[in-house]
Design goal:
The structure is a homodimer. Chain A is mainly α. Chain A contains eight helices and three strands, in the order H-E-H-H-E-E-H-H-H-H-H. Chain A binds a DNA duplex through helix 2 and helix 3.
DNA sequence: TCGCACATGTAACGTGTTACATGATTCA
DNA sequence: TGAATCATGTAACACGTTACATGTGCGA
């Protein structure tokens, strides 16, 4: 139980990469391609962020990189999560949804949800969806209140922008409810 | 027409602040309170980001700060946009929507939309909404394609996460269409 | 042979985060 | 008297962005 020195928390990008590596080992280049071509690309991308991120994860002991095709002229480094990386991932996934997360970090929540299959425990997903539903409902109330008490001199555009936010969260709410049933069905 | 030295572009936070200052002059503290309590808070917040941002805007010549209540024991600095700040705002608002914006910077687009009332030109708003509609439609196609060609071994959760993204953009699409009519009506 | 995809990195830079610091006013 | 609010800042830090750098393998 030694205290770790330099125990910085991983960044969102770190978790995005760590999650991908849980599916199967990959090189930095493979990871880059995935980030570039999929919706995960918000936590992007480009060598300047991902190679440093991988070294960070190595330093934290969460992934391990082994040089593949070492004899070849074009070797590549394959990364896989360490046991420590796996348990850190589980810890991150099992967290409660913080009150602020829905308002300020919905993307982070969706990233966590996307990887929630790694915890092989259906209840965890359902609990997540329920907490999310609750959080979204609460925040929706706040937003609606903001719309009701909107400064009268404000432009139509700013009012409409707030309305867009509300619609977005409404969509999340519907999605969460539907996902619950979808997920219940799918787990037989 | 001298070339400016150190002509860095303003950051999203800068534009958020500059836009607020267009409504009426305010102090840094006032701005902070708004960011803390409204949905604008994503471009947040806390003295450590906003006071430096204001000095940045001053350095760029986009806002001007004047000390108010100087004789008082609790003076405050009121900021207002300069002519240069106003024209920079118009430039920023008048930009075309870049192909990538919809996928990677929807928040930035909505921020721009919120301030679009500052251009006193209804056509600009309509043009924006049309470009946005088009961009969202295109990106929706991409996302649906990603869902269709989803790796078969992937978890239900990751599939559902992608579905959530799709629902979100669908909501934006509906909103954009509705906003067009709303806006047409509202401008008489 | 030309260019593109593969493959991995480094360096400068600016920005936001977090934590700290200071002091006045107002109200309980 | 003490706490909350008003009001403005600074300093360390780490991260992502951008641009640069290097070299192989492969197909046209």
């Amino acid at each position: 139980m030694e205290r770790m020195k330099d125990a910085r928390r991983p960044t969102p990008l770190d978790y995005a990469l760590l999650g991908l590596l849980h599916q199967h080992p990959m090189s930095g280049y493979d990871l880059r391609r995935i980030l570039e071509t999929t919706a995960l690309g918000n936590y992007s991308s480009s060598p300047g962020s991902i190679y440093p991120a991988l070294r960070r994860l190595e330093r934290l002991g969460l992934v391990e990189g082994r040089v593949d095709r070492a004899e070849s002229l074009r070797p590549r480094k394959m990364f896989r999560p360490t046991p420590r990386g796996q348990s850190e991932m589980r810890r991150w996934l099992s967290q409660e949804i913080a009150p602020d997360d829905v308002a300020r970090d919905m993307d982070g929540l969706m990233l966590r949800f996307a990887y929630l299959g790694l915890l092989d425990r259906p209840t965890a997903t359902l609990r997540f969806l329920e907490q999310m539903e609750e959080g979204v409902q609460e925040y929706l109330g706040e937003l609606k209140n903001q719309l009701a008490t909107f400064p009268p001199r404000a432009s139509i555009q700013s009012r409409l922008a707030l309305a867009a936010g509300i619609e977005g969260y409404r969509a999340y709410l519907r999605w969460a409810r539907k996902a619950k049933t979808h997920f219940k069905e799918a787990r037989r």
